[in-house]
Amino acid sequence: MLYKAMFQYCEDAQIDWLVIGARSPLDRQYEALLFKEVFPERGFIPLSHGGNIPHRILAFEIASAQSRWLEANHPLYSMVFETRHPDIHVHDTGSAFKHRARRPALASQLAPGH
């Protein structure tokens, strides 16, 4: 449910990408949510703010999430996109973010070879 609330917040705030550092074994949970590795050739990277514990840097594009989860037949698709949970509903809250101009897509910058 926390993931659903975070996802709705990102949509409402027009956030394009989530980028996280995840250490093992938590990185597998993010892969299951369809996060993609930003630096696959580097693998685990020590993060100084994380006690120099090696983390994988993973990213998730918000705009394509619904279509990617539908195509993957993701087990959480129905809960996130089809089930209404009014206690965590963050859309249409009168957010000041609604009128912010969108930045150009970052997909090309995160694509392999860039």
Please explain how this structure is put together.
- With 114 residues, the protein is α+β, with helices and mostly antiparallel strands.
- It folds into two domains: 1-15 and 63-109, no CATH class; 17-61, no CATH class.
- It is built from five helices and four strands.
- Strands 1, 2, 3 and 4 form a four-stranded antiparallel beta sheet that branches.
- 6% of the residues are buried.
- The model is unreliable at 95-102 (pLDDT under 50).
Summarize the structure.
The protein is globular. It contains five helices and four strands, in the order αβαβββααα. Strands 1, 2, 3 and 4 form a four-stranded antiparallel beta sheet that branches.
Write the layout of secondary structure elements.
Elements: H1 2-12, E1 17-22, H2 26-32, E2 36-37, E3 45-47, E4 53-61, H3 65-71, H4 77-82, H5 107-110
Antiparallel strand pairs: 1-4, 2-4, 3-4
Provide the number of structural domains. 2
Number of DSSP helical runs: 5
Number of strands: 4
Q: Which geometry do the CA atoms define?
A: globular
Oligomer: single chain
Order of helices and strands: HEHEEEHHH
Mean pLDDT value? 82
Q: What is the straight-line distance between the termini?
A: 34 Å
- Using the CA coordinates, give the radius of gyration: 15 Å
Major sheet: 4 strands, antiparallel
Helix/strand structural class: alpha+beta
Strand content: 15-25%
Helix share, percent: 25-40%
Low-confidence spans: 95-102
Task: Quickly list its features.
single chain, 114 residues, globular
